[in-house]
Specification:
Low-confidence stretches: none
Order of helices and strands: HHHHH
Shape: elongated
Number of strands: 0
Structural class: mainly alpha
Distance between the termini: 94 Å
Helix content: 55-70%
Radius of gyration: 27 Å
Mean pLDDT: 92
């Protein structure tokens, strides 16, 4: 009986797994592209799978931060809403005819 050779990941495969994981490709999808079982992927690419999303978020966050501090208003607004929990609040006051009370159909005023 012939035994399957032990899997040894290449540097190119490590980079590919990290890139795919960073953008949210599932482990099943990554394993299919690398042509290995999901368990083999988890065993040999644990570091890439565990750190890719955090590294990607750090890069994107850094880019957004730099845009915001360099005057990009859209980036600054997004940062304040997402990171600082600032929110735009709108208040709407409702009134009836000529600013009077709201009269519901079939009800009598007062």
């Amino acid at each position: 009986m012939e035994t399957k050779p032990s899997f040894k990941p290449t540097e190119d495969q490590r980079k590919l797994v990290e890139q795919m994981s960073a953008v949210g490709i599932t482990q099943e999808g990554i394993a299919a592209v690398i042509e290995i079982d999901r368990k083999t992927l988890a065993k040999h690419f644990r570091k890439e799978l565990d750190t890719a999303a955090t590294k990607a978020n750090a890069k994107i966050g850094g880019t957004l931060y730099n845009k915001a501090i360099n005057g990009d208003t859209t980036a600054a607004i997004w940062w304040t809403k997402a990171r600082m929990k600032w929110a735009e609040k709108q208040e709407h006051e409702h009134a009836g005819k000529d600013g009077g009370p709201i009269i519901l159909w079939g009800s009598k005023p007062g």
